[in-house]
């Protein structure tokens, strides 16, 4: 059973940062809420390095930008593992990196 801390809805890409494929940072405008219906959301930002989530063979600029855009509009959960590690996973339970890799394969990129 997943210990869900809160839900994150990605609203838009706010900013691209970094230089080169290994450091392509993406800042997203997000909403966070304690429930999946987002009744009382709080706004914030989430910055990630997309390359951290994809294997080296998938790290072309086009693939990284497509992967970054795939997060917009999606709902994720912030989950706490039994060992107290906190991570982000897709609403259906896949860790973010696994979900992105599946999306990249689906797109054929």
Word description of this protein:
This protein has 109 residues and is an alpha+beta fold. It has helices spanning 61-70, 96-107, and strands at 3-17, 25-33, 42-49, 75-80, 86-90. A five-stranded antiparallel sheet has the order 3-2-1-4-5. A hairpin with a 5-residue loop joins strand 4 and strand 5. The radius of gyration is 14 Å and the shape is globular. The chain starts with a strand and ends with a helix. The mean pLDDT is 84.
Order of helices and strands: EEEHEEH
Neighbour order of strands in the largest sheet: 3-2-1-4-5
The number of distinct helices, counting runs of at least 4 residues, comes to 2
Tell me the total number of β-strands: 5
Helix amount: 10-25%
Oligomer: single chain
What gross morphology would you assign? globular
Query: Compute the gyration radius: what is it?
Result: 14 Å
What percentage of amino acids are in beta strands?
A: 35-45%
Largest sheet: 5 strands, antiparallel
Mean pLDDT equals 84
Query: Strand pairing plus helix content: what structural class?
Result: alpha+beta
Summarize the structure.
The protein is α+β, with helices and mostly antiparallel strands and 109 residues long. It has helices spanning 61-70, 96-107, and strands at residues 3-17, 25-33, 42-49, 75-80, 86-90.
Question: Secondary-structure blueprint of this entry?
Answer:
Blueprint: E1 3-17, E2 25-33, E3 42-49, H1 61-70, E4 75-80, E5 86-90, H2 96-107
């Amino acid at each position: 059973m997943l210990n869900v801390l809160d839900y994150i809805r990605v609203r838009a890409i706010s900013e691209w940062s970094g230089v080169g494929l290994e450091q392509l940072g993406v800042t997203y405008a997000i909403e966070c809420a304690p429930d999946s219906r987002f009744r009382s959301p709080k706004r914030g930002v989430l910055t990630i390095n997309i390359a951290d989530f994809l294997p080296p063979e998938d790290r072309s600029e086009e693939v990284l930008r497509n992967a970054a855009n795939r997060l917009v509009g999606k709902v994720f959960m912030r989950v706490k593992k039994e060992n107290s590690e906190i991570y982000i996973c897709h609403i259906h339970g896949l860790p973010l990196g696994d979900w992105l890799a599946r999306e990249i394969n689906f797109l054929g990129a």
